[in-house]
Amino acid sequence: MRMFIYADNAATTKLDVDAFEAMKPFLLNEYANVSQPYSFSRKSKEALIESRKIIAECIHAEPEEIYFTSGGTESDNWAIKGIFFLNQKRKIITSKIEHHAILHSTRAIEQMGGELIYLKPTKEGLITVEELSSAITEGTSLVSVMLANNEIGTIQPIKELSQLAHKVGIIFHTDAVQAVGHIKIDVQDLGVDMLSASAHKFNGPKGVGFLYIKKGTSIIPYVDGGLQESSLRAGTENVASIVGMAYALKKNCQCIDTNINKVRELENNLISLLDIAGNKDIIKNGGNNTLAGNISLSFKNQDGEALLHRLDLRGICVSTGSACNSKNMTISHVLQAIGLDEEYAKGTIRISLGKDNTKEEVYYLANELNKIVMKQG
Ligand code: PLP
What we know:
By secondary structure, the protein is an alpha/beta fold. The protein is built from 14 helices and twelve strands. The protein has helices at residues 17-28, 42-59, 72-84, 100-111, 129-135, 158-167, 187-190, 228-231, 239-254, 256-273, 304-313, 333-337, 342-345, 359-373, and strands at residues 5-6, 66-69, 91-95, 115-119, 140-144, 171-175, 194-198, 209-213, 282-284, 294-299, 316-317, 348-352. The chain has a seven-stranded mixed beta sheet, with helices on both faces. Strand 3, helix 4 (100-111) and strand 4 (115-119) form a beta-alpha-beta unit. Pyridoxal-5'-phosphate binds at residues 71-73, 76, 99, 101, 146, 150, 175, 177-178, 198, 209, 323-324. Pyridoxal-5'-phosphate (PLP) is lined by residues 71-73, 76, 99, 101, 146, 150, 175, 177-178, 198, 209, 323-324.
């Protein structure tokens, strides 16, 4: 029987039904502009305050440290450009494996005369303390390293990296878009000054996210206009989506261990069904410490694009690399940076399982993938 299997949860996730129900009143009835002083805006105002509080609690921050944005891309742009525009003479350090929301922001800065250093990952996709240490020089204003990679799932040693940056007074930002709602996040323990997140990656709505900015961090606004978000991010607040984001994040955080265990078990099932351990023609990328369910597989002498389409014909959604990259036939910047051999890199797909996937789906997926790779289907 043909099934429909969504195994691209790193690209986006399904909106949580309860989050949708929480949003509805603010789409239909409580539509007042939060900035208006009349009593009709009271419920929207309260919802905004409550959502900020919920999100702050989920990442161990203060509500005043949460700034709502239109998603991960905007949060990343703001973190990078907001620091650069404060002092354009200073250097920024990031890594070669960041999402394009970071890499294209830093490219824009280079075109404006900014100086950038790109850290090289190990072949597991890890940014080491030694690598950062050798790149830091006087005049560095910002280090930005992602918490978990979207293509290969590697979780970075953010606490150690931020400690190193802080020793010499450098601001530390992390793009945590893939991690928030999926692993426990404590901004105080991580020691970061800024952290980007996006609701649609944790069962919230699309087009909304937040940037955590630690109290006392100097940054300039990225979106100019009205006085919203403490005059740092202008624009009428997207109350319904913010409510949905807070609801979805709280729900995911409440069951984070259960979700991780479930998804890790599905991941292990898939890996054993594909017999990766005993097969030198398949590499699992990303090293040992990866996000549960983020499975980047490279098949020797295969075409990742063709694998994706063959799986699609069988009702299975996966990705060839990062979602934003899927139209690009060239080897992704992440696979290039980890130095994966071309004969494997070209045959790479990313399967990203989520909490709603089932054992039956994983069995079907593995079966179909095995048939395709063996050219039997
Ligand atoms: N950063 C990472 C690591 C991502 O995976 C993504 C989306 O794929 C983004 C940033 C961009 O987030 P958004 O889709 O909310 O703009």
